[in-house]
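Re: the request from the purification team.
They wanted to know what the chain is likely to look like in 3D before they choose a buffer screen. I agreed to run a prediction and write the result into the notebook, where they can find it.
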Amino acid sequence: MNQQENPFDLVELLAATIEARGSDLHLSVDVPPMARIHGSLVPLSEQLLTVDFCRQLVMGAINEEQRARLEEHWELDFALQIAGLGRFRANAHYSRGALEAAFRHIPARIPELEELGHSP
């Protein structure tokens, strides 16, 4: 695949999700990368993810042992830490024969109850 077919990488997508104040990044085939922002899925690009590119993004985030577990169980829960960006809880899984994933940003600071809209 050439650079034109791969306009972004996983770190760029995770950074865009955080910048947009999104909680999750969703990678699914035949749709653009999507950020969950205030409960709604919002596209981060106009480019649809192909089977190969989605697989490349997901497989690039895990090690060989994790890849083996994913291929054996068809699903994998894992953690990802990116310097300068933060920590993410992730789930990779197969859907309709294609590899897809969701990444949840884990904030470094726990918000106060009032910030979450709860009364004292």
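For the purification team: The first strand starts at residue 24 and ends at 27.
Please add any questions underneath this entry.
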